[in-house]
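User: Sequence in, structure out. Go.
Assistant: Echoing your sequence, followed by the structure tokens.
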Amino acid sequence: MTRSALVTGGSRGIGLAIARELAAAGDNVAVTHRSGEPPEGLLGVSCDITDTAQVDAAFKRVEDEQGPVEVLVANAGITKDQLLALMSEDDFSSVLDTNLTGTFRVAKRAVKGMMRNRTGRIVLISSAVGMLGSAGQANYAASKAGLVGFGRSLARELGSRNITVNVVAPGFIDTDMTAELSEDRQAEIIKNVPLGRYGSTGEIAKTVRFLASPDAGYITGAVIPVDGGLGMGH
């Protein structure tokens, strides 16, 4: 059964890997992106998730081209790392507005159709940092921790409509962002990971594919860590 899926922030990194994995599973997949060209073979929709009007326009386009969104993966996120004493109010509020309130905007728009059709899959991409904390990332950690409470509340609200809501919490994943870290910093990070390596974007994508599949029909409100054991116990 081909479904209509939307992955926010799906033009690169983890988001693109998720979009490609869902497409490989047979879904029609659209991705939102803020800049650049959309990925080949996927429906690219320009959208800044901090703007409700743009979110609505993006959903209208997806609905027109591939039908109401049945699978939503809220992946779009930003970082503005800084120690709290030096962090500006904008550094804090803009990260929350994208990562947490942006997820609220897309989820609110998606659930209207899902509730009407009494089916749906929502997967929120959080982070191990949301549970562990990270010096210099109070804004990012707060936004990612917020997704856990948000997702679990939605799971309780929407369960009776056959809509599941789950959270995936990646640890350190091999992406363009981690590639910019110094070798010393990378070695220090890996030392804290019981499996002794970075994860791959594909490992996140396959977890999302499972949660979006019929096989995961009795899983909702779960936080699934994909972090090599980094955050166990949290």
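User: And one key feature?
Assistant: Residues 89-117 form the longest helix (29 residues).
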